[in-house]
């Protein structure tokens, strides 16, 4: 019988987008584009998910360039992957503020082993997106930033959630990172398809670090309170 590690790694190594994206938008697939990301993420999931314990889903927006777009692990930049999770990363050591917040929260929860025993962080859109500006520089882009993009991604997003549920994750509660457009989109999708019993939305780590950093500890406390309702002990 497959473990969650087996299922997640299989999902990652087989994920592929077959649609057409609007002009100027690129999709990042670290599992196909980077042997380093594939090896590091595989080691991560073998370390923390090599069991059959039920877990709750946390869905963010879509991967960013310097976090899971680099490591293949949601909200985990190379600095945190090595320093907090003990997984070597021989590539560039990038820093993502969202990852900093998440691992401060995970430390407060009890550490990675404790946290990942009960939760799996993923995204509504499982692969990252970038857009190229007039200066030729790529920046992160969100699946909901244009209606055309959202429509193009809809079959991909629906298939992503169906596959997550088929892996055996809990469906009574789904946690959502983002209390704006991501929450609105996920609630509408859930109302149409009945994926989850309820959705609990939390402010997105990027929003907290960019606009509310002085209140970071308050938001960590809010996260911990929300997660306490479904907490599982190893």
UniProtKB/TrEMBL annotation:
Tell me which species this is from: Pararcticibacter amylolyticus
Q: Which Gene3D superfamilies match?
A: Uracil-DNA glycosylase-like domain
| Domain of life of the source | Bacteria
Protein name according to UniProt: DUF4918 domain-containing protein
Q: Which CDD domains does the entry link to?
A: UDG-F3-like_SMUG2 (cd19375)
Question: Taking every annotated instance into account, which residue ranges of this chain make up the domain Uracil-DNA glycosylase-like?
Answer: 47-227
Which Pfam families did the record assign?
A: UDG
């Amino acid at each position: 019988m497959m473990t969650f590690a087996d299922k997640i790694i299989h999902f990652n190594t087989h994920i592929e987008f077959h649609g057409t994206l609007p002009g100027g938008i690129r999709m990042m697939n670290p599992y196909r584009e980077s042997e380093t990301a594939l090896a590091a993420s595989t080691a991560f999931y073998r370390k923390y998910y090599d069991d059959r314990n039920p877990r709750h889903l946390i869905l963010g927006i879509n991967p960013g360039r310097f976090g899971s777009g680099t490591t293949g692990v949601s909200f985990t930049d190379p600095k945190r992957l090595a320093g907090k999770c003990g997984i070597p990363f021989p590539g560039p050591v990038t820093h993502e503020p969202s990852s900093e917040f998440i691992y401060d929260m995970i430390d407060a929860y009890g550490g990675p082993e404790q946290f990942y025993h009960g939760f799996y962080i993923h995204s509504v859109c499982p692969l990252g997106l970038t857009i190229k500006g007039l200066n030729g520089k790529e920046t992160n882009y969100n699946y909901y930033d244009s209606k055309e993009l959202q429509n193009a991604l809809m079959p991909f997003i629906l298939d992503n959630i169906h596959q997550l549920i088929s892996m055996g994750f809990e469906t009574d509660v789904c946690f959502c990172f983002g209390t704006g457009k991501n929450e609105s989109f996920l609630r509408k999708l859930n109302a149409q398809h009945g994926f989850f019993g309820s959705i609990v939305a939390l402010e997105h780590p990027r929003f907290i670090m960019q606009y509310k950093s002085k209140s970071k500890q308050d938001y960590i406390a809010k996260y911990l309170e929300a997660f306490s309702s479904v907490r599982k002990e190893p």
